Amino acid sequence: MAIRRSVVKQRGLPSVVQLLLSPTPAQADALANAVRVCNQAATFVSRLAWQQHTFTVLELHRLAYYPARAHLPELGAQAAVRAIARVAGAYANRRASKKRAHIFRPLGAISYDARLMSWSRDTRTVSLWTPTGRVHVSYAGRQEDLKALDTLPIGEADLICRRGMWLLQVAVTLPKPAVREPVNGFLGVDQGVANLAVTSDGVVLPGPVLTGTIGGNHHARALRERRHRQRQRLQEKGTSSARRVLRRLSGREHRMMTDVNHQISTYVVREAERTGRGIALEDLQGIRGRVRAHRLQRRTIHSWAFAQMIDFTSYKAARAGVALLLVDPAYTSQACPRCGCVARENRPARGRFVCTGCGLAGHADHIAARNIATRGAAGWAAVNQPHATGLPSARRDRESKPPASAGGS
């Protein structure tokens, strides 16, 4: 049984705070110029990387640094370094599926590091690099975000222009709490398309336990279908007013599903923390490539935001010190949690489970969540099994690795 443990490798937990910048008209023009220049440089480097089939950061730096500086004389040295890193990151995970060079949008977000920005917390201003010189822009944000910015280590930041507003999304490092032992077992969560999430306690999410505006899974699907039909009508119409409405509606469905995933993940983590349990989720990596769906179902499958829900649950569990495991999803909806019988005949209908061995019946998603919880408990026991050295296996493996060599022989 494949078990993947969610591990944060940093000393602390990464988080992001969002700030609203208030530039003057001249500063806004300078920031827009910086965004255009950095994206032009990234596109130039991307085409060069695609032609030479060079995608690692070090080799791409040797190949493209000086040509990029010569192609765009106003590009700074560190801005060129960040553009090369963006290109390497763009090709890191999707290089095999790409058919042409990656093109960066002219006004896409650009990244700043410590050499491109500096902070003045007393005056609430940030100094940002632009091709025409540094600009000192005032910023504002939520009280908790400003407090995190004042007290926590700061990493890189993304400069974003969204509908005329300038935003700065800053990475900060939170202190990492110790993971508590799941003394009461695991809370299993089954993810699906018809029901976004069903827990091993039998709770269907979204549902009455959530306080948001989405009443349930049927409500969420109806809203998404309505948005899809609305976009189709406007795109077929093609007038300037239709395009204006499309711009106004852009991102609305994405924001809705992001909010729903936040609510689901928050409920799951709080429930596991309250009951002294860990969280077990299915490892759904690569499922879109494995599942063969009818063409009428492809849009639904490919718009399934399961990865986002897993990411949200992972970082919230890490913040709360709740154990989280990703387990093998194979046959979770066809296996009986009572007698262990695995058969396709156990699923006479999509949402119905009836065991052919012992007769156990119930909702298929609830049965799958119970199996996931059982696999989570078994996986945790395997990862933390005792050893003759007196250390759990996970800690033993970590401490048995030889230290990295500090120099050559």
TrEMBL record:
The keyword Nucleotide-binding does not apply. Residues 170-275 form the Probable transposase IS891/IS1136/IS1341 domain. The keyword Signal applies. GO terms for biological process: DNA recombination; transposition. Keywords: DNA recombination, DNA-binding, Signal, Transposition. Residues 387-409 are annotated as: Disordered. This is IS605 OrfB family transposase.
